Every structure is written in C-alpha cells, then in structure tokens.
C-alpha cells in the first residue's frame, strides 16, 4: 500500500495552522487571499497530489470513527464512481438549526448510486482521473461541489453517499459569516441552475416554516438537550440569516468583483487586525511541559 500524502491548502491563515502542519510530512500549497475561491483551492490541492484517489476534508471537520477513510473510499471499487461523500453532523458548539440541516442533508442510510448532484466537499473523495478531465469551476462563489457532481452525472459517472464515513463539521460563525455563507451559495446556485428563483415570497414562506420545524424538533429533544426556550432566539436568528442571505444572493446582479469577493470570503469581523508590537515572546504551547503548566498555575 502506497504511503498516503497530505496536502494543506492555505489561503493566508493568521493562526498557527501552517506552523503546526510544518511539524509533520505535509506539503503546503499557498494561495493569496485575493485569489481564493473554493474551486481554485480544490484544484491547486489536487494538482499537488499523485494518487488515484484524493480525499477532501475541510479545515472545519474531524472524523468521528477510525475507519472513516476506508469507508469513504470503499465505493471506488466500482470504476464508474467518480466521487463519494460522507455523513456530517455537528458537535456541542453547532447551532441547533444547523443540526437539523445536517440531519436533512446527510441521512443515516448510504446510497451507492445517487442520481441527484448534491454532495459536499467538506467530507469527500474524488477519482483523480475524473477530476483531471473536469476540474472544479474556479469562478463560482460556492457550491463548486454540486456543479462538479452535476457535470459528472451528465458524463455518465456515479456518485456515492457513505453514511458510515462520518465527520463532525464545526461552524463557529458570527451572524455576518452565516449571512455571507448563504448569500454566496445562492449566487452560485443561480449560476449553476439559471432557472432557479428565490424571491421575497419564498423568504416569507420558508423562514417561518423552518423556524416552526426546528421548534418542533427542539420540543422532542427537550428532555435530553435543554428547553425549547433556550433555543428559540438562536433558531429564529439562524433561519433569518439563512433565508435573507439566500434572498440577497439571488438578487445580486453583475459580476463578482474583488471588493465583493473580499466581503463574501473575508467578512470584516474575521479580518486580521494589527496587533501591538510586543517584546515578550508568545507562549509556544508545543514546548510547555506538565511541570511548566504546574508552575504557571
């Protein structure tokens, strides 16, 4: 069995991601923040690999079981399978409404021959040969995975959903990030499926409908995960941001210029702010021993 290679695509992270990765046999591929799109990130990462299969994992996910990769790649025994994707669930910081979305989008039963183009690259594997003839669209503001799956199905390829390949997908997002996520995905959906529409009537219908659905689920879950009242505000806010962002994305006209791209991918509340220059060196937690921690307590 060939030794797996690990590729990290970094688009200007300001935390310790690259420093941590450098301690391991990881190839780092850099993309300028101004050049980032999801499709470009995927294409650059896959270009740097050499295997027949490429496993794709978002920076926001972690496997739930140690057989995750073997489960995710099992469908490729069928030579017609071009892409497989796995189940996603939230964790303790996931917003309640997003738990419901994960349950809806990623059922508990696998589908080895999915005929619809839904998939999600946060937890997926792709056949490199199929990608080589059909790279990801680098112009889309999101949903590049669904666009790729649509084109793969049109070429007679197969998609597989693997419920056993489960990850936790963690979105610790501010309100502006939630709004921007659904806005840019709606902009992409409009480009992929020009016949799709989403107007104020759709907002007025789907927003309350999903709030009521979430509250009904929360009522059933109340015995194990807290009271409905504790979740009410979060449910209303999340669904409002989701569907208002979707409405605004469909209402967007014109091309995505650099200014809009920065706003969609790097909202103001997440931009790196200049820090005061300090002579004191930051703590290197990799070097802190148990004794050091005891001395600091």
Summarize the structure in words:
The protein is α/β, with parallel strands linked by helices. The chain has 2 domains: 6-169, Spore Coat Polysaccharide Biosynthesis Protein SpsA, Chain A (Alpha-Beta Complex); 175-269, no CATH class. 44% of the residues lie in helices and 16% in strands. The chain has 11 helices and 8 strands. The chain has helices spanning 17-21, 38-47, 68-73, 96-105, 128-133, 144-154, 175-192, 200-225, 228-251, 258-265, 290-296, and strands at 6-10, 26-30, 53-57, 61-63, 81-89, 111-114, 123-127, 158-169. The strands form 2 sheets. Strands 3, 4, 5, 6, 7 and 8 form a 6-stranded mixed sheet that branches. Helix 1 (17-21) links the parallel strand 1 and strand 2 (26-30). Helix 7 crosses helix 9 and helix 8 (200-225) packs antiparallel against helix 9 (228-251). The longest helix is centred in the C-terminal third of the chain and has 26 residues, at 200-225. It is globular and about 50 Å long.
């Amino acid at each position: 069995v060939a030794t797996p290679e690990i590729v990290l695509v970094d688009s200007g992270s300001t935390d310790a991601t690259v420093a941590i990765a450098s301690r391991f046999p990881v190839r780092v591929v850099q993309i300028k923040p101004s050049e980032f799109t999801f499709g470009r990130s995927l294409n650059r990462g896959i270009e740097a690999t050499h295997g027949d299969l490429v496993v794709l994992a978002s920076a926001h996910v972690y496997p739930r079981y140690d057989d995750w990769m073997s489960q995710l790649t099992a469908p490729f025994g069928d030579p017609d399978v071009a892409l497989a994707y796995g189940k996603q669930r939230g964790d303790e910081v996931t917003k309640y409404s997003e738990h419901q979305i994960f349950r809806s989008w990623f059922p508990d039963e696998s589908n080895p021959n999915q005929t619809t183009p839904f998939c999600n690259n946060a937890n997926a594997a792709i056949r490199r040969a199929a990608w080589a003839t059909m790279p990801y669209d680098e112009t889309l503001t999101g949903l590049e995975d669904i666009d790729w799956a649509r084109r793969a199905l049109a070429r007679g390829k197969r998609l597989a959903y693997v419920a056993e390949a489960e990850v936790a997908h963690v979105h610790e997002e501010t309100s502006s990030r939630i709004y921007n996520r659904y806005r840019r995905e709606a902009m992409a959906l409009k480009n992929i499926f020009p016949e799709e529409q989403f107007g104020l009537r759709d907002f007025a219908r789907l927003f309350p409908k999903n709030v009521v659905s979430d509250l009904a689920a929360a009522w059933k879950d109340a015995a194990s995960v807290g009271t409905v009242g504790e979740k009410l505000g979060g449910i209303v806010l999340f669904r409002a941001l989701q569907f208002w962002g979707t409405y605004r994305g469909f209402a967007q006209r014109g091309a995505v210029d650099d200014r809009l791209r920065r706003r969609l991918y790097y909202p103001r509340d997440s931009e790196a702010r200049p820090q005061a220059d300090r002579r004191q060196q930051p703590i290197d937690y990799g070097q802190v021993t148990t004794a050091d921690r005891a001395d600091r307590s």
